[in-house]
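Cross-check.
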Amino acid sequence: MSWPSGDPRRQARAELLRAAAAVPGATPTNGIIAVEVIEAGGEAVDLRLELVFDAATSGPARVRDTDIAISGGQRRPTVAVAEGGVTASGRVLTVRVPRRGDFSLYTLRLERGGVPLPGFDPLLSAIPVGFRLQCAQNFDCETPDPADEAPLAQAAIDYLARDYAGFRRLMLDRFAALSSGWRDPGPASAEVTLIEMLAHLADRLAYAQDSVATEATLDTARMRISAKRHARLVDYHMSDGCSARAFVHVRMTPPGPGRPANVAGINPGARFLTAWTTLPPAGPDARHAGEARVGGAQVFEAVLPAQLTSAHNRIEIHDYAGGLSELPRGTTGMALADPDGALTLAVGDLLLIEEVLDTNGNASPDPARRHVVRITQRQAGSDPVGAVDGGGNPVPLQLLHVAWSPADALPFALPLARVAALDSIEGLAIGSVQPTAVARGNMVLVDHGEGRGYDSIKPLRAPGRRRVFMTLSQTPVAFALPTPRAEESAQAMLVADPSRAAARIDARQDVGAGGDPVWELVPEMFDARADSRVLALDVDDLGRGVLRTGDGISGRIPEPDTAFDLRYRIGGGSIGNVGAESISHLLTDAHIGLDGALVTGFSGQAANIAAIRNPLPATGGRDPESIAEARLRAPLDFRDPRRAVTPQDYAKRLLDDPDVTNAHGIERWTGAERAIVLLVDLANGAALTDAVEARLRRLLEPYRLAGHVLEFRTPVMVPLELAMRVCVRPQALRDKVHERLLQVFSSGRFADGSTGLFHPDSFSFGTPLLLSRLYAAAQAVDGVRHVDVTRLRRQGIAGASDDALETGQLLVGDYEIPLLANDPNFPDRGTVTFMMEGGR
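Predicted model, tokenized:
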């Protein structure tokens, strides 16, 4: 707030300051009453400030040229003060400005460090200044009142007309009222024909208005795209669905006697199909595969590469000759028998652990005892007595020790035993002694969906629209989870978080010679530059994908009459949640990928594959969220506000980080924007490094209010020196009272749940330490008769005074926290001394 010179409010404020200063013992508070601009030659001017009191009484220090800020111009936003250009004479402060401002109105402020000068009134620390008010004008600057014009006569209009017949009747009546003597000549006349054309156009516009009004709220919206954008306004992300994921085991054909293991590879993009009677385990994408698709067979594509070998078909879990009866629940490692040294399992490979026989030898294992892990460690080893030779003598057995992360820990206890098989499984003879549980490699992670969508579209812009919309011809568009990271566990691969699912679309614009530019698919265009080639995808009510371009401000508008080549994955949804043992076929031939290149999914021969199966059901498939579901969930989600407005909101969000034990926010005005200063107390006294600050910024960015700038700082701990003279009651034990006082005036937490007076939770940033609080805590100790605080000050400051004893409080800064641990191992963290008198 800044009143101009001569304003009665400024004069009244100055009188109040003079009256307050007249009170005996009061400190005068200065302020600016008026400002006068005096020519000093050329562009230089002198600003003469009239103060309430003499300039020499303006606070602890005189006003310097750095204490004066002049801002607010349009062509010249700020005006500098000449170095040493401030002089004081009585109540007049003269400020030399070497270069005047423009014709705008400026504001002159007396401030130091962004706050008013000490000894100056905040309301009278600023005043408007005009540098060119004396410039002559040839006319009166007062704005004249607008001329009163008599309104034209208006005929009655029926504003309820909303259809063709109503608009036609309204226009005919209006035309007759404005055209004296006009009669309706019939429908074939030019006048009536024109009126009917306008009525038809008005009918179309009225329908559009009704449609817009209907789509204007979430409760009435009928289009899924409208509902999605309404939900987005309240930070609710309407799901477009998600593709299911599954683990597939590929059993390779065993080699002949004396021949090496069959080896092949699976590349990302390899296609798997659910069971179909006319399809072999592996083969090309021929007529029968097309029939399977039409008949409802679901297609899955490999996500990660995998190396296949017949040595990984069936791997025995080493039980140390019966010494290991089971793999207990929570197991994160085991030993695999590798007698021939053929196991090539590597870190990052998937491994299936499953029961294959029950305890009676029947091939009816428990389907719930199947689990997939991802190897994180491997180490070759041996068991000195793990095998027997032809004579029954124990001999060493080569082993491969594998381990996986705790996230993949075995969720059940898996019995390990050897029984006589009553059924033939995997070509093994009936009656042979077989383990009840085995491990299997050759595991492949697959996503539901197939990259078969292709469109060549020449977009046409609708009249009056800047954006271009393109509707994909094939449905539904698959939304899949991102490719797993190298450190991600097997179980994390199946966690279906719809908010992470995204479509994969390769969009290239055909611009002729010189290459086709690629357009990137982004979830939102809010941050897109005007020249960015970006597209956003929406799913309409029929499940069709609708691509939209930018509007020239956020995102680029494509060149006219240029076609787009679009390749995308189709599939996804809950139909992909197929049961276990449903995926049975692999298409071995090459196909065109999303980028237009040839994809070789399988590097071996079809005859090398004996069987394909998914031991566990596919999970995570979700259909696009409906409008009805969004209407129910979006308002509930809005109750958890995902925004930060006050400094306390930011501090509360910081506590979501596990390394943050305490946080406090302070709002500061920098002169140009609002800064939220966040003081962060990390666990175990950790330092606020650049990496930690970057992580905290990412945490707060979704909640940050526009215009807020975040600054991170660590709290400043202020150790204290405290001394007390304690008078103990005659009947009380002095040592017991002393022991209790040491507990009260500490920062610890005790067995009964109570805490010391200086526990970190007892003080916050900038909280002053009240002397009365110390007296109350000491007097509450049983046996204390009287207490006097003889010292209370900051520790380790030379010449520190005990001003707190006079003022009744020890002040700390906004970034400081009082600290008094009274720990003999850390005397620099505050000390307390008690001089005990009386008692016994």
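DSSP finds twelve helices and 48 strands in the chain. The radius of gyration is 41 Å. Passed to J.P. for a second look.
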